[in-house]
């Protein structure tokens, strides 16, 4: 294929309208730098250098930033495990778990299968492009909302929806990764349930499956090598809208960051660990006891990155509001009731700009 002109219109057309994704751009052109008019962060830019500086221990006379905890969950019944999980959910919104029963070999098989999809010929991947996918439950796309964003993210992804009530829900998924993606859900679902049971028990509330895990989805995120990470971001700063996210990241340092006040905390890769973060729905249900915090992914100049985000969320017709168990002592609700499907529509209609969707349903 002949090189394309490095203009805003030409590249966006190639990546989005011609459905090559960012990886397709990297595969054929790999320029030393990208034109600033194309993929660039908004006015308040967050660069790799800025994040690394903020993640480091501050200077003399200042407080050092907290560290995202790594929790050993080999004994789920240990009260210390529940205490650490609830503390992290209430203060940082993020934590990592190890000794959870999913082996490193199983994780590596999933990573290889995920990369296998993005290494397919472009025409094969295009069959799953969102809006015209051959599957009703698997979609391939680039950035977050590329048809409305002024500037794109440096990310392609393949997303899946698990419909466990249908025997053949995965029949039309890409064969290169289908079995591994199905198996991953079978491993993640009980882990998510255990964490949610702990968090609900801490609120003296029952574990309601439909409200907390009525929908199960996963994104396989692929971040190609980026010629100039200063001009772009892998995934813009955002909060997750579900109840709980279980993330399997790879071993590339300096990629994932979570907001803590006006700082960004680095979430380093830990061998075999699963990163867990709280979503908006759990913050609403807990009436702000648990925190859904902004996070982002930086692009890398030298290495491609792949991650697997497993989302536990309410059923689409669930109406979410602060739990009565949380309000039983007279505490006022902070959020008005919202149907999860309506919340999702509002969230996915906007780009990743850092504005919090949860503010739209907050009571005065």
Automatic annotation (TrEMBL):
Gene3D superfamilies in the record:
B-lactam Antibiotic, Isopenicillin N Synthase, Chain
**Cross-referenced Pfam families:** 2OG-FeII_Oxy (PF03171), DIOX_N (PF14226)
Which SUPFAM superfamilies has this protein been placed in?
Clavaminate synthase-like
Ranges where the Fe2OG dioxygenase domain occurs? 211-314
Annotated PROSITE patterns? FE2OG_OXY (PS51471)
Q: Which InterPro entries match?
A: DIOX_N (IPR026992), IPNS-like_FE2OG_OXY (IPR044861), IPNS-like_sf (IPR027443), Iron_ascorbate_oxido_reductase (IPR050231), Oxoglu/Fe-dep_dioxygenase_dom (IPR005123)
What are the UniProt keywords, alphabetically? Iron, Metal-binding, Oxidoreductase
Q: What's the family?
A: Belongs to the iron/ascorbate-dependent oxidoreductase family.
Q: What is this protein called?
A: Fe2OG dioxygenase domain-containing protein
């Amino acid at each position: 294929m002949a090189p394309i002109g490095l203009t805003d219109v030409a590249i966006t057309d190639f990546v989005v309208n011609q459905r090559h994704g960012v990886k397709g751009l990297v595969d054929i052109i790999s320029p030393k730098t990208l034109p600033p008019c194309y993929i660039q962060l908004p006015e308040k830019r967050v660069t790799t250098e800025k994040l690394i500086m903020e993640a480091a221990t501050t200077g003399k006379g200042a407080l050092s930033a907290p560290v995202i905890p790594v929790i050993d969950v080999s004994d789920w019944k240990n009260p210390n495990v529940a205490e650490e999980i609830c503390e992290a959910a209430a203060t940082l919104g993020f934590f990592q778990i190890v000794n959870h029963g999913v082996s490193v070999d199983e994780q590596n098989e999933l990573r290889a299968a995920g990369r296998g999809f993005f290494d397919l010929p472009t025409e094969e991947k295009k069959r799953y492009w969102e809006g015209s996918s051959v599957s009703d439950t698997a979609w391939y796309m680039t950035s977050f909302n590329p048809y409305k964003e002024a500037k794109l993210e440096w990310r392609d992804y393949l997303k899946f929806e698990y419909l466990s009530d249908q025997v053949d829900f995965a029949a039309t998924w890409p064969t290169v990764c289908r079995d591994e993606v199905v198996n991953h859900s079978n491993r993640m679902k009980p882990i998510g349930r255990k964490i949610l049971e702990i968090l609900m028990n801490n609120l003296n509330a029952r574990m309601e499956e439909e409200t907390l895990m009525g929908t199960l989805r996963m994104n396989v995120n692929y971040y190609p090598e980026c010629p100039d990470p200063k001009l772009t971001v892998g995934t813009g700063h955002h909060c997750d809208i579900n109840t709980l996210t279980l993330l399997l990241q790879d071993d590339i340092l300096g990629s994932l960051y979570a907001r803590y006040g006006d700082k960004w905390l680095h979430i380093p890769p830990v061998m075999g660990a699963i990163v867990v973060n709280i979503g908006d729905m759990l913050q609403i249900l807990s009436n702000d006891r648990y925190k859904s915090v902004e996070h982002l992914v930086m692009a890398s100049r030298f290495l491609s990155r792949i991650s697997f985000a497993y989302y536990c969320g309410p059923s689409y017709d669930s109406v979410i509001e602060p739990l009565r168990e949380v309000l039983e002592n007279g505490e006022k609700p902070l959020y008005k009731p919202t149907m999860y499907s309506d919340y999702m529509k509002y969230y996915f209609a906007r780009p990743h700009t850092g504005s919090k969707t949860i503010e739209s349903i907050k009571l005065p």
